Amino acid sequence: MELPKVDLFTHDNNQLLTTLKEKQSSFDGLIVVYTNKDDLCNLIPAAKTYFELDASFGDALQVLFSETKQPHARMLLAPTGSLYNDFDDARRFKDIAFAAGKKALKMGMKSPLVCFADEPCQETNSQWTHDENLKEYQHFLEVTMLGLLESCFEPIDVRQFMKNVETFERLGFVASSKNANSCSIERVAAIEAGRRISKDIGNPDPEKMSPINIAKYIEEQFKDIDNVKVTIISNIEEIKKNYPLAHAVTRASLAVERHHPRFVHFEYKSPDQAKVKENLYFVGKGVTYDTGGADIKCSGHMRDMSRDKCGAAAVAGFFKTISMLSPEKVNVTGAIALVRNSVGPDMYVSDEVIVARSGKRVLVGNTDAEGRMVMTDLLCEFKERALADGNGKPSFLFTCATLTGHAIRAYSGYGITLDNGVARQHKISKRVYDAGHIFADPFEISTLRREDLTCVHAGSSNEDLVSANDKPSTMTDRGHQYPAGFMLQAAGLEKYGVDSKEVSIGYTHLDIAGSAETIGSEGWSLPRVTGSPVAALTGAFLC
Fold first, then answer.
1. Rounded to two decimals, what is the model's pTM?
2. C-beta of residue 173 within 8 angstroms of C-beta of residue 211
3. Measuring CA to CA, how many Å separate 320 from each of 67, 314, 441?
4. Model confidence pLDDT, tens digit, residues 83-105
5. CATH 3.40.630.10 in the chain, residue ranges
6. Which residue, 13, 29, 338, 405, could crosslink 112 as a Cys pair with Cβ 3.0–4.6 Å?
7. Dist. CA 100–CA 171, nearest whole Å
8. Which DSSP string corresponds to 439-464?
9. 5-183, what's its fold?
10. Contacts of 302 (CB under 8 A, 6+ apart)
């Protein structure tokens, strides 16, 4: 699904109305984003009459028609709500832009023009971020663009069924020169293109986006991209040898050929290696359906488990963004494990001891804790790569997954980021947090502590580590933290912390169980896939 054409027009010295009059013939409607009703009335005097007749007018999306066609014949008034109280953030612009886009499409607009009656004040520093140089709404224009673009997108399964999906043909934005100069349409297009790939993979049912079909989709999406190398592993024996923990998870699926696993590797190298500042490695969890395995999900908890692939979807989408922005300061390597946690005669079971790629013996405590099993061997492989690359630049490893119900219990609809000591020293989670905040893709920072490592230690000589207990994460203390402690040790990363006499390697775990989908849904439908954390990762590492 192609992005609509996006144009940005500027005005100076309070000449917004003049600019709107000049551009109105090229667009079929006007969306006016505003915070203060008085500022709206200054731009559209006719609105004052409605406010006098109805004090609630303009508190929500409102359609206004003008017989004089000034500044446009049909206008959609889009209030942000408050911007400057203690708990406001850039999502004010994202949310109203998304809602306005949905309404505009229903009204029949194909090419709306968007303006701001009162652009946000940038005089004060953000009260949220860790960087005093960041402004609360410095990317409000890009966030608004992303909200409109999100509103007109339908994922691939919808497009294939409906054929003719309503979308925008063109979007125009008008902003002051000061704010427009800090806006990058190229960055907006790259983030949205990445989010769309993420949603195309994350949204469809487990048959349409099985491991094999996801691999085919990625191959098609990256076939004409020169700066990202994509490698697909389909050989089962190779997967069993190199990724034994993931192979255990997918064992039951091997009886059904169309459910066979795939591993997809991505590699991006900066066009100027002299400018590289850091090496990034991303592992994505792509469990295309999670039954829970032998510890089967019951009482309705299996529902929505086709979305357990959203970590892998985000990593794939992020590489699309990388390919479009061609960043110079990073080399980025990625891999996604695409497997199905099925039920069958050959399913892995609790009490099995499986030897990981690192050589650690892992006692399986619960087969529904498959996500950490799926990612650990890839994390170990990237540890090996980081040690071998040897370009003298710091290396940071990431796992990205819809990993635990505890993440939703702890932080509801927010993504979670937590570091090992090396990543914490380099402020990796703070970078994700700050970027997510100003790009309306917010994260919470959690902390990896010693208890999260010791709780998975062996209780007998039969094993080296234990993968989960016999309870769901929501009923386990520190249920979203300790899986990172397991993966860190099972991959052999604990040897390369801040006290390492060799090389130190940063590790950050991103649990996006809360942010990969919207919280809540319409009726009994599944929630909407969001494409998080593509925007946050772009702001943190590519800007």
1. 0.97
2. no
3. 45, 10, 18
4. 999 999 999 999 999 999 999 99
5. 204-527
6. 29
7. 13
8. TT--EEE----HHHHHTTB-SSTT-S
9. Leucine Aminopeptidase, subunit E; domain 1 (3.40.220)
10. 290, 291, 292, 296
List of residues 6+ apart from 275 with CB closer than 8 A: 328, 329
Tokens at residue 97, please? 């832009």
CA atoms of 419 and 168, how far apart (whole Å): 40
Q: Is 297 among the catalytic positions?
A: yes
**Given the residues 187, 357, 372, 478, the one annotated as active site:** 372
Which residues have a Cβ under 8 Å from the Cβ of 409 and sit 6 or more positions away? Answer: 474, 479
The helix/strand/coil state of 287 is strand
Q: What is the mean pLDDT of residues 103-114?
A: 97
Q: State how far the Cα of 411 lies from the Cα of 192, in Å rounded to an integer.
A: 25
Residue from 297, 385, 427, 495 carrying the catalytic annotation: 297
The position carrying tokens 């140089």 is: 133
The confidence band for 123, taking pLDDT boundaries of 50, 70 and 90, is low
Q: Which two tokens stand for residue 463?
A: 């094993």
Residue 377: other Cβ atoms inside 10 A = 26
Q: What is the mean pLDDT of the chain?
A: 95
Cis peptide before 533 (omega within 30 of 0): yes
Residue range(s) in the chain whose domain bears CATH number 3.40.220.10: 5-183
Tokens found for residue 440: 């309306």
Q: What does the block give as tokens for 34?
A: 């505003």
Domain 204-527 is in which class?
A: alpha beta
* Measured distance CA(121)–CA(136) in Å, rounded: 9
Which candidate, 398, 377, 395, 378, places its Cα nearest to that of 386?
395
pLDDT, tens only, 205-242: 999 999 999 999 999 999 999 999 999 999 999 999 99
pLDDT tens sequence across 174-207: 999 999 998 999 999 999 999 999 999 999 999 9
